[in-house]
Amino acid sequence: MGPNGGGKSTLARLSNGLLHADSGRVRVAGLDPAREPYLVRRRVGILFQNPDSGLVAPFVEDDVAFGLENLGAPREEMRERVAEAIRAVGLSGYERREPHTLSGGEKQRVALAGLLAVGPEVLVLDEPTSMLDAAGRREVLERVHALRGNRTVLHLTHHLEEVLDADRVLVLNAGRLVADVAPEWLVSDATLLRENRLVLPTVSRLALGLGLPPAKPRTPEELAAAVGERAERRVGRR
């Protein structure tokens, strides 16, 4: 996380050799992305902001197969991996759809399927929902959440609500790492939020305003239940 210009997208591009560092070192599983980009890109896949920028084929299944074709995957293996990736992003039945007919969220899911088909160990998501409407954001985030536990996901975003269930939150500002904390610590540190221009989601702000500890991310339903419990306790004390 971090403000615009904080270094998030630069970090993403350094991670697979799209940019080369002019000082310091970058290592991915012991590999140097600047010297061994093809080996690193087998391990690290990047999903960018604009879903249209990654769509290159006339049909969805062809687009998902594009990376495997470049790697020279056998035809039968390619079919299986493409079908599995399309299922993983919830687009079964879309195989012969033309990408330009899809919604923004569907296009981004096609791009995500293309990465999954190649099978990277690490997914780097560079603000993947920034150009989507609310429905598209929800579609993509649900699919990203389903991938947890299967591979490492590095999600770069300035929407704090998108990282409330993360394992760790790294805050970048002006190219420097200023915090490495659990989400519940981030949402309760007003100074850290203010200094890095991070804004709490409405639900979290309301919870803190009501004196509810940010022990975990809260959905609106959980917040309503917590408020109800607190009100009942107060009535009981009277």
Write a compact overview of the structure shown:
By secondary structure, this protein is mostly helical. Helix content is 45%, strand content 11%. Helix 6 links the parallel strand 2 (122-126) and strand 3.
Report on the architecture of this protein.
The protein is built from ten helices and five strands; from the N terminus they run ααβαααβαβββαααα. With 238 residues, the protein is mostly helical. The protein folds into two domains: 151 residues, 3-Layer(aba) Sandwich (Rossmann fold); 56 residues, no CATH class. The strands form two sheets. A three-stranded parallel beta sheet has the order 1-2-3, sandwiched between helices. The longest helix has 18 residues. The radius of gyration is 20 Å and the shape is globular.
Main β sheet profile: 3 strands, parallel
Uncertain segments: none
Task: Tell the overall outline.
Answer: globular
CATH superfamily label of the largest domain: P-loop containing nucleotide triphosphate hydrolases
Keywords:
238 residues, single chain, 2 domains, two-stranded antiparallel sheet, globular, Rossmann fold, 10 helices, 3-stranded parallel β-sheet, mainly alpha
How are the secondary structure elements laid out?
Layout: H1 8-15, H2 37-43, E1 44-47, H3 60-71, H4 75-88, H5 104-118, E2 122-126, H6 134-146, E3 152-156, E4 169-173, E5 176-181, H7 183-188, H8 190-195, H9 202-209, H10 220-237
Parallel strand pairs: 1-2, 2-3
Antiparallel strand pairs: 4-5
Helix pairs in contact: 3-4, 3-5, 4-5, 5-6
